[in-house]
Amino acid sequence: MDTKLTLKLDKDIIEKAKDYAASQNKSLSRLIESYLQSLVDDKEVAAEPKISPFVKSMRSGVSVPSDIDYKKLYGDYVDEKYK
After folding, report:
1. Looking at per-residue confidence, does 10 or 60 come out higher?
2. CB of 38 within 8 A of CB of 48?
3. How far apart, in whole angstroms, are the C-alpha atoms of residue 17 and residue 24?
4. pLDDT at 29 (0 to 100)
């Protein structure tokens, strides 16, 4: 259900926001509603880190043991490389 809300904002900001909303084919009310919704949604899922689609696309499915010694493996690699 929609409810009316009155805001006091700088006139220049309102004009720029109206132009932006028009360029997005949205009303200023819908633009502000979308912004406020994104703020509320972010608070609700703050415990879950956001992973971009690009990073998700890089998943390989390879499982790495949690107790792996990266320094030793890298040291062994360097030793072998420069023998």
Report:
1. 10
2. no
3. 11
4. 92
Instruction: Output helix, strand, coil percentages for the chain, rounded to the nearest 5.
Output: 55, 0, 45
pLDDT of residue 65: 82
CA 32 from chain centre, in angstroms, equals: 18
The amino acid occupying position 53 is: P
Query: For residues 2, 31, 47 and 58, what is the CA-based torsion angle, rounded to 10 degrees?
Result: 140
Whose tokens are 């703050």? That residue is: 46
The domain segmentation of the chain, as residue ranges, is: 8-49
What pLDDT score was predicted for residue 42? 63
- For residue 24, pLDDT over 80 is answered with yes
Mean pLDDT of 37-49: 69
**43 to 33, 38, 40, 50: CA distances (angstroms):** 16, 9, 5, 12
Token digits for 39? Answer: 């703020």
